[in-house]
Amino acid sequence: SALRSAAPLRQGFASSRLFSSSSIVNKNVAVLGASGGIGQPLSLLLKNDPLVTELRLFDVRLAPGVAADVSHVNTPAITTGFSPENDGLKKALTGADIIVIPAGVPRKPGMTRDDLFNTNASIVRDLAKTAAEVAPKAHMLIISNPVNSTVPIVAEVYKKAGVYDAKRLYGVTTLDVTRASTFLSGIAGLKPSEVIVPVVGGHSGVTIVPLLSQAGSASSSVSAGEQYEKLVHRIQFGGDEVVKAKDGAGSATLSMAYAAAVFTNSLLRAVNGESGVKECAYVESPLYKDQGATFFASPVSLGKNGVEDIHPIGNITGEEQKLLEAALPELKKNIEKGVSWVAENP
Ligand code: NAD
Ligand code: LMR
User: Domain named Lactate/malate dehydrogenase C-terminal: which ranges (predicted)?
Assistant: First the structure.
């Protein structure tokens, strides 16, 4: 079945009729970094997701305020805020089924995502340590950049704690799929929901590899040469477009919150037993392991226990092969940086 990322969220009152109340299993979602640019709109979108029954909002600042605000929305999810005082992080994580992490600093113009490594690596490591202790079986969704490195960091922390399950750790790359759908559908003159582009590799610059040849009827609307190259560049550097437009005030937050809510909703549906749920995600992967890319984003089938199947990228064009070849060495470097950093900074 097709990737779902480009489809609008099935949320709110209309969509809740799709589920009988007895089919809704209790699901507890924790957001770490909930008061930030991504965290606040993400918390709101999760509050609006009928599959979320409990919402735990943690941040080093303001989370009780954000939770008080969001909690007044008249949807079922019981919403609570937690501060670092009095073991707030542990309390927020106890009983969590899904943990979404957008904690960390965003880029300013002129920075790469890797420039965030020094600050965000330790934030993600410390949150992962507590999660490994308190909620080792929860699904971990990592948004904090640089995703190519922060996901391997979480894996190493979990391995060290003896609780690592590769099927439950995801780097959220849904925003790349969302952007590819938006940009290509604009060119093709089709509805975004009809244009689904798998995006594989990683989540930064040249590691982002859009497979425009696999976008169905929209594929043929892009002419080879300059138009194709511009579109690929826009998908690979869509984040920079937002960083530049925000002019020092941060990076994508609203589109990211949307993308993370879409991915979380897909995972919730899969965990609740829906079959055929497929999303692109950055996961520990056998696909390009022999080239050092031990983590790789590709379409994955999601099920009750998380990643059920990692799908190979399928037939690609010569141009896409070149993009992949440029992505792999950079990805390998980013992964090794995360792994060796944890070894040196346990
Ligand atoms: P922001 O600065 O607006 O928010 C970050 C939040 O994290 C703040 O509220 C801050 O208090 C909180 N925080 C910091 N340290 C924390 C800790 N130890 N525990 C809990 N919370 C903590 O930033 P933002 O715009 O929301 O971006 C957050 C991260 O997401 C950045 O690293 C950014 O690069 C990344 N990002 C990723 C994607 C993606 O596609 N994966 C997209 C956009 C942004
Ligand atoms: C994005 O793709 O928008 C995010 O990774 C944020 C950034 O730094 O560009």
Answer: 173-340
Residues whose CB is less than 8 angstroms from the CB of residue 74 and which lie 6 or more positions away in sequence, other chains included: none
Does the pLDDT value for residue 9 go beyond 60?
A: no
Going by C-alpha positions, the residue among 153, 133, 137 that lies closest to residue 145 is 153
State the ligand closest to the CA atom of 234. Answer: 2
| Tokens representing residue 199 in the block | 């995006």
- In this prediction, residue 117 carries a pLDDT of 98
Q: Which residues make up each annotated binding site for NAD(+)?
A: 33-39, 59, 120, 143-145, 256
Looking at the CA of 82, name the nearest ligand.
1
- Decide: 32 in ligand 1 pocket, CB within 6 A: yes
Average pLDDT of the chain to the nearest whole number: 94
Binding-site residues: 33-39, 59, 107, 113, 120, 143-145, 179, 256
Residue 209 forms beta bridges with which residues? Answer: 200
**Does the annotation count 311 as an active-site position?**
no
Which residue's alpha carbon is nearest to atom 29 within ligand 1?
144
338 pLDDT band (50/70/90 cuts)? Answer: very high
Q: Which of 139, 203, 233, 311 is catalytic?
A: 203
Evaluate if residue 2 carries a pLDDT over 80.
no
- Tokens representing 324 are 């992949």
Enumerate helices (H) and strands (E) in the chain, giving the number of each.
11, 11
Could you tell me the pTM of the whole model?
0.95
Nearest-angstrom CA–CA distance, 39 and 291: 35
Contacts of range 90-94, beta carbons closer than 8 Å, 24 or more positions apart: 90/130, 90/133, 90/134, 92/30, 92/32, 92/56, 92/57, 92/58, 93/30, 93/56, 93/58, 93/130, 93/131, 93/134, 93/135, 93/138, 94/134, 94/135
Q: Who has greater pLDDT, 210 or 14?
A: 210
Other Cβ atoms less than 10 A from the Cβ of 279: the count is 25
- What is the best residue among 129, 144, 236 to mutate for testing ligand 1's pocket, by most ligand atoms within 8 Å of CB? 144
Q: Is the ipTM of this complex over 0.95?
A: yes
